[in-house]
Specification:
single chain, alpha/beta, Spore Coat Polysaccharide Biosynthesis Protein SpsA, Chain A, 2 domains, 9 strands, globular
Length: 284
């Protein structure tokens, strides 16, 4: 079985170098190919990698086309039986890919697989496994009930809090930081929805995988490190624009049949965006 690894880079050359070192090590015992798409980084990434990682296929975009479009751009070139979408701010253990593909092959209904993730301090990242962001599920998270009842099937559904981080389980939503798909799944779902520039595309793809008749699995038997958010400044106006814009794209796509619900959710998103922008301005 062959693995194709797709990584989108934007201004994190040092993190990408560390990521690629771990990826190359993890590919030693498997048939694999590695693609890196750079979204017009301004940190000297192209010169930095000029004479490094000769086995990696680098693609240098002249403009930032966004996460979804950059990932999709190399799909016609990949030849793997499995395709892994991986963030550049991650470190994978040496046996990660072997374990993931072995588990994948034993689950006949598996369309995609995500793994246990920790941050740079070793803390478990709850977004490793998530539920579908229904309005009430999102509301419970927004008002903090998921923190008061972290194991509740109802109030902590956003992060599937009732499921142990140490057990393998089907889940609704996987993180785009590490998302392994079979070629059969990818052929059905056609990759990421390019309406999303950044954020939300992993939730959307997870939903499409479920619609296609497959399951998304959270795989706890391997752990990667994710230095989350290093390629974006979360207090910036650009972050606010893309993050809340993606939320509205998702809502309009999945709640189009319920105009009233869609309207009120979009109002809530606008309120959160305004509040976030106000906090940003006041902190300057």
């Amino acid at each position: 079985m062959k693995l194709s690894i797709v990584i989108v880079n934007f201004n994190v050359k040092q993190l990408l170098e560390n990521c690629l070192q771990s990826v190359v090590q993890a590919c030693k015992n498997i048939d694999a190919e590695i693609f890196v798409i750079d979204n017009a980084s301004t940190d000297g990434s192209q010169a930095f990698f000029k004479n490094k990682f000769s086995s990696v296929h680098f693609k240098w975009n002249k403009i930032n086309v966004g996460f979804a479009k950059a990932n999709n751009s190399v799909l016609p070139e990949v030849s793997g039986d499995y395709i892994l979408f991986l963030n550049p701010d991650t470190i994978v253990p040496p046996d990660c890919f072997e374990k993931c593909m072995a588990f994948f092959s034993t689950q006949h209904d598996c369309g995609a697989l995500g793994v246990r993730m920790v941050d740079g301090q070793g803390n478990f990242l709850k977004e490793s496994k998530r539920g579908f962001p229904h309005p009430m599920t999102s509301l419970y998270k927004m008002i903090g009930l998921h923190k008061l009842f972290p194991r509740s099937r109802k109030f902590a559904k956003y992060y599937e809090g009732h499921l142990s981080e140490k057990e393998n389980n089907p889940v609704a939503v996987l993180s785009g930081a590490f998302m392994l798909l079979s070629k059969a799944t990818l052929n059905k779902v056609k990759g990421f929805d390019e309406s999303y520039f950044m954020y939300g595309e992993d939730i959307d793809l997870s939903c499409n995988i479920t619609k296609a008749g497959f399951k998304n699995y959270y795989f706890a038997d391997t752990t990667i490190t994710h230095f989350k958010g290093e390629s974006t400044e979360k207090k910036s106006a650009e972050y606010s624009k893309h993050f809340y814009g993606s939320m509205k794209i998702f809502v309009r796509k999945y709640y189009a049949d319920n105009k009233i619900t869609m309207h009120f959710i979009c109002l809530g998103i606008d309120f959160k965006k305004a509040l976030s922008n106000l906090k940003r301005v006041l902190s300057i």
